[in-house]
Fold this sequence. Notes:
The complex is a heterodimer of chains A (483) and B (240). Chain A is mostly helical. Chain A is 77% helix and 0% strand. Chain B is mostly helical. Helix content of chain B is 56%, strand content 0%. Chain B contains 9 helices and no strands. The radius of gyration of chain B is 22 Å and the shape is elongated. Classes of the chains: A mainly alpha (483), B mainly alpha (240).
Amino acid sequence: MNPRAGTRVMWTYIGTGVAIFALMLLAGILLRASQAGWIPVDPGTFYSILSLHGVGMIVAMAISGLGTLWYLVRRETDLDERIAFIAYGFFIAGVISVIVSVVPGRYGSLWTMLYPLPFVGTYWPSWATGAWLVGNALVMLGFMLWCAQILGALLAKYGGIRGMLAIDYVFRNRAFTESGGKPPPPAMFAAAITAFDGFVTGMVGLTIGTALLVHWIDRSVAIDPLWAKNLTYLFGHSIANLTMYMAVAGIYVGLPLCTKRVYHTSPQLAVAWWATLVFVLIAYFHHLYMDFAQMQWMQFVGEIASYLAAIPVVVVTVYGGVMLVHRSGMRWSLGSMFLYGGMIGWVVGGIGAVLDATIPANVDLHNTLWVPAHFHTYLLEGVLLFTLGWVFVNLEQRAGAVSALFTRWLVGLGMFGGGGLFVLSFYSAGAAGVPRRYAIEPAPGPFWASIATAGAIAFAIGFTICVIEGVRLVRLRKSKAAA
Amino acid sequence: MKKQTLAATIILLATVAFALIPLFRRNVDFPIPVHHALHAAMMAGGALAGIFFAGSLMRERRGGAAWLIVAMFAPVFAMLLMWPSEYSYFELHPYGHAAEHLGLTFLAFVAGYGGQRYANGIGWAFGIGIVAMALLAIGGYGVGPAITTPVAAAPSQSNATAAPNVTHGSALFTQNCAVCHGVGGAGGEGPPLKNERSRKTLAAAEAWIENPAPPMPKLYPATLSAQDVADVAGYVETLR
């Protein structure tokens, strides 16, 4: 087993994820600036960029999280580096195919598209739809490969599903501990749930993806639109959710490094993850509350599942994280700032999501900018910060140094202040009823888009300083090693 | 012979026998959802056989990235093979239909065997996954309402303006189409056309008759006029 394989895979994945994120950040600023009326972008181009931005951000966050988890699982089990790089090859091939569909092809019906929109768009040629579908399928194949590898390793390490999910540890706690049994560390729950739900989601994604590809080739193959929407959101919503659960591993491993304490597995933590395992797959129903053809019981299940998917693991994890920091004398470096800030972003984004998933509120909020507000909070101020937190904790530890106070203030102002302003403008516009997925928004959309653009630019400046600081820490470590 | 190997052999033989039914019962006119369900049953047999065969191997022979990749692609190819078009080219002929079934059984076997060869438990994941995909397909893969899309409902080239005459369409159908599609669209060498309305709009049916994919012969405009096409399409839409 090559001892450097874990770090090689992790940095390749995270480096790629951060690079894609940076490009998608620029695309996002362009979108908001055009809605603000600062930069003219024609609607066809707007929807193409929006499609690229949406799928690109999810892929960026997912690749970063998968790299981190792969490294953490490899510390516990035996993983083949080649499979991780084959999966990476699928991701890159998928990204290239998606870019081809959007840049020369001008595909523009978004990644969680509603059938038959990809086939009736007038802005893009038919081949662009095919390239888009193939690109998504390739990314999905890479993801499934990753999931299968991690599942296989965890099942082997912990002796099957009972051990992997700590079932005996919860139900027969005394006998389990007295016999010398040890439950998996917290980060392994994140890996197991990501791999399990990711595998299921991947199968669903491939089902709808293949069906759409077949329809693209042979238009006489009918597709049921409600079926397609259910599968698209089961796949899309779950993948977006799972990016957070991948990144949460940063709290379990990163915060203990900052606080010099240990994040233990508890029965509560295990049960909270079980809830996530089950309910993350059926929480997507809240995207179909207004589809009146959908069976009514599904709507109620959707509301309950939306609460049960997120709340237990957020409460247990965040409570554990806060207790870890409490009176620990932790130094507020960039790494610890990001990890702690990520918990706040996760909670705030989660509250926004739970409000949207509440049936009476959903009617007013779901088709507005409230929805992008909550997932931008969740991704930008949650998943990204966890990833950067994990990266900086590692860099700081290896360099034996932390960033200057002034740098931390600059990064904090940009990424927390600018990012906060950015998502707040989304929430405000959503509460005011500004519709989402519109190239040209009715008032007060352009006003809030101006504020959002300013916030996003501040965020981008903070992010750039953060990247420069990361490069400085890498060089510092190298120079120390050379000395 | 180990118990697992014996069980795998029995399951595989039973599944193959089930898959070969189209050779003996030629006019099978199941709705597409039933077809998907039967495919799911075949794939369950194939996957189980694969899992048991792999399980009968020595533990130390497990592993290998190639097995995982092979297992991962099998479900995608299975979904492609389940192509639910009325002109699913494999299903036009009993031998093709049986070959399609054997292909599905083989792919499920590969998913179960490959996954299990890679790591204990992964064969079950892929096996359950491939069957679940076939079951999911029941909900809408080839069974939704026809939706007008640019290609499916390309404007008819004909200049027919009169409403379809179903009686005339029925006569034309008997004369030109029933030899392949069977009397009343019950199916024969060509696929059955019952419930065609759930798959194609009138415009889509007209467009198809005007520009069919091989092996269906193109009768417009040489044999059928624009109005004839409209009448035949109108008649086909009434078939139940």
